[in-house]
Amino acid sequence: MKKIIVAGIVIAAVVVGILYFKQTKILSPIGSGTIPKEKKLDKYSYTALQKTTFSGSEIVIDTVLKDEDDFTSYLFYFYVRGKKVSGLMNVPKKSGSYPAIIMIRGYVDKEIYQPGVGTSHGGEFMAQNGFITLAPDFLGYGYSDKASSDAMEDRLLTYVTVLELMNSTKNLNTALEQKSLAARFDNVHFGIWGHSNGGQIALSVMEISGKEYPTVLWAPVSKPFPYSILYYTDNVDDHGKALRKVVADFEKEYDSEKYSLTNYLDWIKAPVQIHQGGADESVPQKWSDTLVDTLKKKEKDIEYFTYPNEDHNFTQGSWPLVMQRTMAFYKKQFRLSQ
Hints:
The chain has 338 residues and is an alpha/beta fold. It has a single domain, classed as Rossmann fold. Helices cover 32% and strands 23% of the residues. It has ten helices and eleven strands. A nine-stranded mixed sheet has the order 3-4-5-7-6-8-9-10-11, with helices on both faces. It has a two-stranded antiparallel sheet with strand order 1-2. The two termini are 35 Å apart.
């Protein structure tokens, strides 16, 4: 499998344009020194995001995308800093109160993307087993508003998007009621699922939020930034030239260590389950091995399953077992009957 998972996110935005911000200084009103002016992306450092308030927004359930005997898939919307973000929601048909899982996909080319790509199969399985799932498309994807013209901001806004959606779930039952659906979010049991680059986003969200939401990661991208995106440039037409310029310009203005998830693993409080294929060409198993070893040394609650002959998407026969273990993990953490 070609290594295209993360680089495409950044490179696509480069076409629109990269804003290059030089640090400026203003005179201090109380002395002869200067006060550094806050730069555009300062607010996206992990420490800054940790101090940020995410209020959430209304959730609007829109058209039916798939109608089955035991669940229905809907297009839904929520808002991130005034911009509309679309997504796919799976809802059980049977009346009752259910846990909710936010599902975060990996990289998908915008030219082929439709809501639910990368999450629909697992989301439908979860809905059939008594879970409500919400998979955001992210800005620039699906029916969402346009992405930022700044490639790095576009990347960093993915964390903000998930954090806002997490806080929007307080309005989920209102949306379900307005749609006259029988299912309800139980307002207690909430989890996160992430695959590939979605795993990197999930790790970042766990760190920033400090929440104890049970989280399942399938082949997560877990290397330090910016290596975590530079790694995926070998099959790009320009051999990564444009991406390297984006990163070089960013590092002239910002300390990349403040934007690397590997520096904030101590902040994770959530129990985590990780699945990794041994034949994965997109996320090498040694990445997940290292992540798990580090989390264990930090005494985090971690479960780890490896599948020697499996690829990045677990298409070599292990998907049912991976999904079974995923569901068992959530039910155990939520203290639900198996």
